[in-house]
Amino acid sequence: MNKIADIISAAADKANVALKENSVLGDPITIDGIMIIPVYKLSFGFGGGGLDGTKNKNADSVAGGAGAGVTKKPVSYITIQNGEVSILYADDTTKQDFISKILSTIAKLRSK
User: Fold this and answer.
1) Cβ 67 vs Cβ 49: under 8 Å
2) What are the CA-CA distances from residue 78 to residues 23, 97, 105, 110 (Å)?
3) Residue 32: which region, alpha, beta or left (left: phi > 0; alpha: psi -120 to 50)?
């Protein structure tokens, strides 16, 4: 494999590890007997390229680069209390409204 392919392969390998580490379901959190499980949307982007000048008899004439990115955005939360499952959606709200929704849901579940 040439040096540019090695660079791109290394970036892809690191992105693959990041995707495995950033699973769709987050770690459960338990607050006052209510289990909250975050659900995430994962997005992935990758690009790379380079120039291999070894064909021009200059073995040191190799340039390349590659990059990858992974984003993780919460889209909903699963809540479980006393065997009842609820879903709280995160879309179309501001951060403050979303936090208020979570706290309101926890309060409602506590009162059951």
Assistant:
1) no
2) 15, 17, 11, 15
3) left
In the chain, the amino acid numbered 97 is D
| Residue 26, number of CB atoms within 10 A of its CB | 16
Q: What is the pLDDT of residues 71-87, one digit of tens each?
A: 888 888 888 989 888 88
Residue type, 51: L
Q: What is the pLDDT of residues 36-50, one digit of tens each?
A: 999 888 887 777 777
Q: How many CB atoms lie within 10 A of CB 9?
A: 13
Write out the two tokens for 21: 């580490």
Between 22 and 66, residue with greater pLDDT:
66
CB 35 within 8 A of CB 29: yes
Read off the DSSP letter of residue 54.
Answer: G
Chain CA centroid to CA 51, Å: 31
**CA neighbours within 13 Å on the CB side: how many for 6?**
6
| Confidence bin at 94 (pLDDT 50/70/90) | low
